[in-house]
Amino acid sequence: MAIKWEGVMPAVTTKFTTDDQLDLKMFQTNIEAQLDAGVNGIILGGTLGEASTLTYDEKRELTRFTKELVGTKVPVIMNIAEQTTKGAIKAAEIAEEDGASGLMMLPPMRYLADDRETTEYFKETAKSTSLPIMVYNNPIDYKIEVTLDMFEELLKEDNIQAVKESTRDISNVTRIINRFDDRLKILCGVDTLAMESMIMGANGWVAGLVCAFPKETVAIYKLVKAGRIKEALEIYRWFLPVLELDINPKLVQNIKLAEVATGIGTENVRAPRLPLAGEERKQVQAILDKAMATRPEITSEVLVS
User: Fold this and answer.
1) What is the rounded distance in angstroms from the CA atom of residue 264 to the CA atom of residue 259?
2) CATH class entry, domain 7-304
3) Is the pLDDT of residue 305 over 70?
């Protein structure tokens, strides 16, 4: 299935039962809510998906289940976060076998690769697969930046097509457009900068809090793209305190608690993560309680526009 690399693409959480098994029933409930809101893709196995805690078989089960669930409605994209080029190539092969439509790729994990090593890592993986690739550029959390000069080299591979822009430098959107025009699609990867990035020309939003608030997220995207900035701002200003839960070391727990608030998830996480507790939980719950009490009404007219 072709990927346009635009719109809202949820980096979905992985649902677990109380006895630490995959909770495919609740996972389906959440995915159906995403589809009903009009998202443009589903991304599995990212940070929010707790991929580092998933077994090899669980990742395969999630990919196959999601592909069967969404059919041809939207592309299913699997994240690759591997330590070796060999491992990344194998992960890409498995994702393709299991029906994924594309890949999101982090730089090499653990080893702090230099520019040449990072570039070769992406290029060798791209050469090994027919799947289109979005490079996840997040030097804040993962310590390796994919520079514009590196992208110039990477774009020699036709299936490297997009970037999840998470440098947290809003002007980088303009730099990318000035350098590459439409050759490199841009999806904002930081919830608190999403509206600003799209106004500056980003093609879409790899979102986190969409996991709990899909209609609000899609509405912001559609209103911005329609030039209805004032209407988008009304939703975005309401949303911002909740979006800030995404830029936090406990983002997985925060967002899963938000999913509980909206009825499309559970708090269950996989150890060593634990659900929020004490004062930390109270603070997050207070943010969510206020958001739910003042939640805007999203009309169907906005979602289908």
Assistant:
1) 5
2) alpha beta
3) no
Q: What residue ranges in the chain does DSSP mark as E strands?
A: 7-10, 42-44, 76-80, 102-105, 133-137, 160-165, 185-188, 204-207
**What's the confidence (pLDDT) of residue 100?**
98
Q: In Å, what is the CA distance from 101 to each residue of 75, 77, 134, 267, 290?
A: 5, 6, 12, 29, 38
Query: At which residue do the structure tokens 């630490």 appear?
Result: 20
Return d(Cα 173, Cα 161) in angstroms, integer: 15
Residue 172 predicted with pLDDT over 90:
yes
Alpha-helical runs (H) found in 113-250: 115-127, 139-142, 148-154, 171-180, 194-199, 214-225, 229-243
pLDDT tens-digit profile of 12-30?
999 999 999 999 999 999 9
DSSP tag of 11:
B
Residue 212 CB partners (closer than 8 Å, separation 6+)? 242, 255, 258, 259, 261, 262, 264, 265
> Is residue 120 packed enough to be buried (19+ CB in 10 Å), middle (13-18) or exposed (0-12)?
middle
- Cβ distance 96 to 64 under 8 Å? no
**Rg (Cα) of the chain, in Å, rounded?**
18
Task: List the structure tokens of 83.
Answer: 């330590």
Tell me how far CA of residue 4 lies from CA of 41, 133, 186, 201, 251, in angstroms: 10, 11, 11, 15, 28
pLDDT digits (tens, 9 = 90+) for 64-79: 999 999 999 999 999 9
Q: What is the pLDDT of residues 226-255, one digit of tens each?
A: 999 999 999 999 999 999 999 999 999 999
Cβ(131)–Cβ(103) below 8 Å = yes
Instruction: List the chain domain ranges.
Output: 7-304
Angle CA 203–14–98, to nearest 5: 75
What residues contact residue 303 under an 8 Å CB cut-off, 6+ apart? Answer: 37, 38, 215, 218, 219, 222
